[in-house]
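Our consortium's second objective concerns turning raw sequence data into structural hypotheses that experimental partners can test. To show how far this objective has progressed, the report includes one record in full. It was chosen at random from the queue rather than selected for favorable results. The single chain below, 672 residues long, was entered without modification.
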Amino acid sequence: MKLRHHIFIILFTIITFQAYSGGSSDASASSVDNLEITARGAIGRLEAAGTGPLWTGDGGKNIRLAILAPEVHGEVPGYLPIYIQGLLNNNFGKFSAVNLIDRQNLDRIISEQNIAGSGRFSERDFVRIGNLANAQYFLFGTIQRLSGNRFSLQLSVTEASSGVRKATFMKEGTLSQLEGRAALINEATAELLTQLGVQLTEAGRQELLAGNISTVQAQTGLAKGITAQAGGSEVAALFNFTQAITFDPSQMEALSRLNTLSTTISGGTISERITNDIQARDRWIEAFKETTRFFNNHPPFEIIFDPNLMQIGETDYAKRTATLGMRIALDPSKAGFDALNALLEGLEKTGRRSAWGFSGWPLLDISPRVSGTVVFGGKRSFSYKVDVALLNESGKRIGNGSVWLKTEEIGFSSGDKKITLPRGVVETILFPNIKYEDLTLTQTLTIEILTVNGISSKNLASSGYMRVITGNLERRWHDREMAERQIKKEHEEKQQQKEREREIREAYAEMNFFGFSGLYQWSENFPNGFGIEVNFYWTLIPYLTIGFDSGFCSYDIQEYYKPYLNEIDEFQTGTALSLTPIIGLVYPIGERFKIFSNIGLEIGIPPTGRKGILANWITPSLNMGLLLGNIYSPRFIIRYRLTWYESLVINSGYENNLFNSIIISFGSSVNW
């Protein structure tokens, strides 16, 4: 029986990561529990879940609320108050209609008015901020470290004009409850909204309490970026803002801060504390090391897997098994590479890149070489092995699959001003031999990402090594297949074109010729001569020609040797007769234009005063020239001939002599 599209689905979870900790008082990564990367899966089209209303009534639209970072009591990670503030802003913005005061605007007002320089706000401060920001209420509180990994979170909503508290929340929890899925902060949001009169729907409350790991990690990156920037670590801030955008592209505050910081860095300044050229160079080296460390821990790529499973091939009815497939993609993170290029642009803007020996950065060594400055270890392409399992509703593993995802190469050479992103890839993970009974006896099916390059799901989620999310890859798979077909078609067409060109060249690579020539010959120690020849050439195979030249040439030896004729004791003649077999090569530049070269042996009777170097009547020759015309028209040959003879020099005897000839031939093609 064929597989049917009625397998239900459970467990929708998305991987996130712990953003890079820069400039914070506590750089240790938190432990995130139960964050295996899983997704609900189905054979066939996965129906989209409905998105109903998150609250009832007006959702508190008449409330104007300013959310402040909580005060710190005890040893608390430096980014944590800003992270809590950011996540509260996100929760109130999504799960209510409350009007929120923009955090960046709020920070500007507090900074300009020099409010709460000690980090604590008074009732007078609330009134001043409320008047300046037009805020009706304030959400404020404290975060206190109790002992070990436990914290106390106290929050309240206070009316700015009267100081009356409208809502309060107080609870203890672990750092993983503040981060991870932010269970403690989500619970606080639900309680405060209820006390403010905002009624969440059941679906809204469940969604709020369940949390969104991508949102949490985006807020973590944003908070760490703000903290790093405040501490003067622009590069750490740049990459943390980048991570925030990677996990939540809709995070407008992170985008705004990233754009501002990128503009500053790409202008060539990474710190205003630099006072001289050596210090500036050293600061850039530290930036290189920071960049290398960051990308070693957080490669600028993300994995997307499509939970819409598909059957591959036919069902094995004898074994009652089938093979399922799942599309999976590896994409470069545009935000990550943009941040890297912002640094590269800033380095170029200093005007000192070459002088400092940094032309090869980021993928090549700087000069002199400094350890830990080459990004990606100098690699140009990247491979990630992904291991996946299929589970039934009881948690039994019914199938396993794995795939290697390999990117194309990054384009970069020493001195380049920009790195080009490698193109993403889409592949299919196969789950072979899935038993039919395992599918029909379960009502639910779960796709679980086990490891990426040997790193387990939990470690991926807690370390932030790489973002792994779900997505619909059907269109991309189709586009890839079409692109591959197009590439294959273009390749075949190119091969066919090359074959046609080869055939044409071979067709043109001939020197079939029969005709007559006139020649003029000169040398240093022999009189010049004029002659005529009969020429016959035939191309045995493309590019290879055989044939012969036969003719005579006349020399005025009577004039040249006149004073010495009586001393020359041999038969005297001024005419040379020869037959020269030749073999050579011909190469077509086009149908009507060919170049050629051949060698030959002149055999015959030389004139008085000359003899061959192989024998009196044999000597070698070399021809080079041009053939004009095609097989259907008259043909012309213009060539230069070089011949080796020994010629008589009076009172010196015979000496080696080179004879030069210019030959012009006229004839037609010989077709067999």
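The partners drew two points from this record. The longest strand covers residues 575-590. Residues 1-34, 44-50 have pLDDT under 50 and may be disordered. Both points have been shared with the crystallography group to help prioritize constructs.
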